[in-house]
Amino acid sequence: MPKAKSQKSLTKWTKQKWRTASGKKSSKTGEVYAPAKTIAKLKSTAAGRKKLAAANAKKRAATKKVSNMLSTDYIKVRKDNERRLYNKNLFNYTLWI
Questions:
Q1: pLDDT in tens, 74-90
Q2: Residues 70-96: b if buried by 16+ CB within 10 A, e if exposed
Q3: Prediction pTM value
Q4: How many CB atoms lie within 10 A of CB 20?
Q5: Is residue 12 part of a domain?
Q6: Which of 18, 37, 70, 89 is deepest in the core (most CB within 10 A)?
Q7: Measured between alpha carbons, how far is 24 from 30 in angstroms, rounded to an integer?
Q8: Please, are residues 39 and 19 in contact by the beta-carbon 8 Å criterion?
C-alpha cells in the first residue's frame, strides 16, 4: 500500500540529520535542534544568526521556567511527605502511651 502524503513527509523529516548549531548536546547548551541544512542556512546570514539566537534564547527561557516549576513541585511534595510521616509517627507513638 502506498504511503499517504503526510507519511511521506514524516519519513523525509525523520531521515534528516538533526543537530544543534554548536554540535553539542542541547541539554548542555540549551540550543534548539534543527536539520543540519537549516542551521547551515541560518548561520550563513546575519539575519539568520539573529533568528537562531532568538530561538535559542526562547528555548532557554522556557526550559528554565519548566525547571523552576518542577523543583518547586518537588519541594512541595517532599514537605507533604515529611509532614505525613511525622503525623503517622506521632500517631503511632501516642498509641503506645
A1: 777 777 877 777 776 66
A2: eeeeeeeeeeeeeeeeeeeeeeeeeee
A3: 0.61
A4: 20
A5: no
A6: 18
A7: 10
A8: yes
Q: Of all helices (H) and strands (E), which one includes residue 29?
A: helix 26-29
Relative orientation angle of helices 46-96 and 36-44, to the nearest 10 degrees = 120
Say how many C-beta atoms besides its own lie within 10 A of residue 31's C-beta. 22
- The proportion of the chain whose per-residue pLDDT surpasses 90, expressed as a percent, equals 41
Note whether residue 2 is domain-resident.
no
Domain range enclosing 78: 17-96
Determine, yes or no, domain membership for 90. Answer: yes
Distance of alpha carbon 7 from the chain centroid: 26
- Three cell numbers written together for 95: 498509641
